[in-house]
Amino acid sequence: MTLTHGTEVDERFASIMVKLRKLLAKAERTDVAAEAEAFMAKAQELMARWQIDEALLADAEGRPAATVTSVTIPMAAPHAGRRAGLAYAVARANRCEAIQVTDAAVASGVASVIVGDERDVDWVLTLFGSLSGQLDAALRRGRPTRPRHESPKAWSTAFVAGFVAVMHRRLGDAARAAEAAAERAEAEAAASAGPGMGGARGPSVALVLAAKQDEVHEVFRAQFPHIRSVRRSAGTSASGRRAGQAAGERASIARGAAGPSVRAALSG
User: Fold this and answer.
1) Strands lying side by side in the sheet with 97-102
2) What is the average pLDDT across 236-240?
3) Average pLDDT over residues 232-241
4) 3-state secondary structure at position 49
5) What is residue 121's predicted lDDT score, i.e. its pLDDT?
6) Domains of the chain: which residue ranges?
7) Residue 124 backbone phi and psi in degrees, to 5
8) What share of the chain is helix, strand, coil (3-state, %, to 5)?
């Protein structure tokens, strides 16, 4: 990619971030939860569509779809391992890879490494920082509702597990919806052009995104050639899990996007 092209992409990214910040400002000013969620959902939709449009443009111009980078995020205690699960959910929804690692330099001993296109990684850091903060706030609000017969630790663990599970689903649904909408738009554009007027379609959105994902995955596998899966339970407290799931449903999936400074704060 030439320096000029990189500058143009940076300018487009800066432009979309301006729009996102305006939506976030509106969401944070309103006291009506439904309005706030509508603004947040619109912000997430815009970012997902930007990612797809950039991948399609890169394919049309014959340049790499991703400028791959790797960033380490320290996981705060308590529940550091489950927070790594949240980081994984955010990363995967934004076409990045993530892995939990042991890091003696981190107070909790746990960190997540995010690998992906540099602008997608910026968004992952921003969104994860927001959701992690929302998780902490929801957990503090929910503790007084814990049944007295249940262990505080078991209840909190199940709460976090429930929150992460719901966010994994919501983020995945948002990514798939954006991809489906882009596919429809591409098909409609090709149909309206008509035969002999440029109506032939290029690679599908799914194929272009898969090519981008392959670039990211290649770097990820080179960095982590030996990966071991770990399965975590949903916790033993049913009430804690239900409370965490409810908090996940209420969470704003794009709240608090603060731009490049978030990247420095989380990876520092």
Assistant:
1) 68-74, 110-117, 97-102
2) 63
3) 59
4) helix
5) 92
6) 67-267
7) -60, -45
8) 65, 10, 25
